[in-house]
Amino acid sequence: MADSETINTCKSCGFSGAGDYCSRCGHQYKTKRISISGLLHDILHFFTHLEKGFGYTLKQLIIAPGHMQRTYIEGERSKHQKPFSMFIICASISAVSRYWILKALLKYYHAADISEANFFHEYMVVLYIALVPVFALLGYLFFYKSGYNYAEMGVWILYTVSVLFLGAIFIALTRFAWPFQDSAYIEFPVFCVYFTITAVNFFKKLSRWEVVIKSLIIMTIIFLLNQVLEDFAVHLISRS
Fold first, then answer.
1. pTM of the model
2. In whole angstroms, how far apart are CA 176 and each of 98, 115, 165, 222?
């Protein structure tokens, strides 16, 4: 008696064949419907299997700032989230989170400005995309002797600022304890510490004190530029 197998068409590449998996791309022929349990499994997998991608990159940026960016530039790239996509993901998470934090502060404490909330919701990501080339140029000019080119400085900046975006969320949450505080007074010293540690670990061939001083100057310029442009954007939004 002839053995007859069902011929399936792969939804991924369009190749037809028998069995459970496509012999061309390895994709499973039968696709399960998306379910709540499946989504919960994906979330659990994300937080428990941080071997590559966004989770792994974020973990390395937290436990090995500077080392991670340097090894990425030197060629260890397969496990990491690409720098620009990492930047966009973190910027988007930060923008949405800070928008809802400000909305809550406005609703329950009357301690926020709706124009500021709208800035984070609609314009923050665009503003920072425009500022990245400026930040990278600052790094290139201040650390010209390091041997890194402008694009490599851009990688360092993209990954470093990604962590600062996420850190800004937790700092913004402190306003629920102190609703009328200016979170910039917390952001600046915290960001300076992380940025400086990252720079010291990244520019291994340069004098440590030279790196510390220059990184603090860069962070100060970045922070002041950011504050001025954010305030200007919020002012324009409030008038529209």
1. 0.79
2. 12, 19, 19, 26
Contact 157, 175 (CB under 8 A): no
- pLDDT, tens only, 72-130: 999 988 889 999 999 999 999 999 999 999 999 998 998 888 999 999 988 999 999 99
Rounded Cα gap, residues 8 and 177, in angstroms: 59
Provide the number of structural domains found in the chain. 1
State the CB neighbour count (10 A cutoff) for residue 53: 16
Whether residue 2 is contained in a domain is answered as no
What is the CA angle 24-28-29, rounded to 5?
90
Q: Tell me the residue range of the domain where 104 lies.
A: 50-239
Q: What count of Cα atoms within 13 Å lies in the side-chain half-sphere of residue 107?
A: 7
Distance CA 58, CA 94 (A): 14
